[in-house]
Amino acid sequence: MPDQPFKDHFSAAAADYAAHRPTYPEALATYLAGISPGRERALDCGCGNGQLARLLADSFDAVVATDASAEQIAAAEAHPRVCFRVAPAEASGLPESSVDLITAAQAAHWFDLPAFYAEARRIARPGAVLALISYGVLHLDGAAEAVLRHFYTQVVGPYWPPERAHVEAGYRTLPFPFAELPAPDLAIERDWGLDDLVGYARTWSALRGAQAALGTDPLPDFAAALARAWGEPGSRRRVRWPLSLRLTKL
């Protein structure tokens, strides 16, 4: 079991998380399935509302998706090949040598990593893949990106949990005591409107930290500034999050 308590930054925003967090590209799930030793079972740890787990279900006979937050699991959309469970990443409850792929997408920086790695070794079949996946700050063209960057770094920046630094470093600062595999060049890309981007910012843990510390909500001012920079009302912009992966075979 983990030595550290579960740091719950997301249960209170589970509905917004389900509605506004970007989904992963199909190419990510296809690639991970292709390097796995089999396709019988995958485990997605810290699954949130199941964005990656449902994609993995297209390639695996069964996917177990766990999260320590009951609210996140409750917000997950059901899938016939995905079993959602409330469980910490460090204690999956799965049998030994029973999993072909273990993923943690935008979640590993919250884990007790030594305990998680021990659990991964316990449940992994020979040659099973372990994948830590993260995405950082999105990119978009034009003046709207400058507004977004200012809000991210200057307005709510001081209120990001310290673990956020690992995300910004592409997980290169996380301990990863394994022989590492090369990672493909992948990204999340979406065509988003103004409301999509504001809704995404609403899911940030730093926003909730700023609201608590300042006693006011900085999001409406951000939304207004973003609208001024966005251009034609109702228009959509291509947004992009480069993915960072750390991969190994256990």
Low-confidence sequence ranges:
6-14
CATH architecture: 3-Layer(aba) Sandwich
| SS elements, strand count | 7
| CATH class (first level) name | Alpha Beta
- The fraction of residues assigned to DSSP E strands is 15-25%
Counted by DSSP, the helix tally is 10
How is the main sheet built? 7 strands, mixed
Oligomer: single chain
Average pLDDT score: 91
The CATH topology = Rossmann fold
Q: What is the overall shape? A: globular
CATH superfamily: Vaccinia Virus protein VP39
Strand order of the largest sheet: 3-2-1-4-5-7-6
Tell me the number of structural domains: 1
Give the structural class: alpha/beta
Along the chain, the helix and strand elements come as HHEHEHEEHEHHEHHHE
End-to-end gap: 20 Å
Helix content: 25-40%
Radius of gyration from the alpha-carbon trace, in angstroms: 18 Å
Protein name: Putative methyltransferase
GO molecular function, one term: S-adenosylmethionine-dependent methyltransferase activity
Keywords: Methyltransferase, Transferase
EC number: 2.1.1.-
Please supply descriptive tags for the structure shown above.
single chain, 250 residues, alpha/beta, Rossmann fold, 7-stranded mixed sheet, 10 helices, 7 strands, 35% helix
Describe the structure.
It contains ten helices and seven strands. It is α/β, with parallel strands linked by helices and 250 residues long. The chain has one domain (11-249): Rossmann fold. A seven-stranded mixed sheet has the order 3-2-1-4-5-7-6. The radius of gyration is 18 Å and the shape is globular. It starts with 13 loop residues before the first helix and ends with a strand.
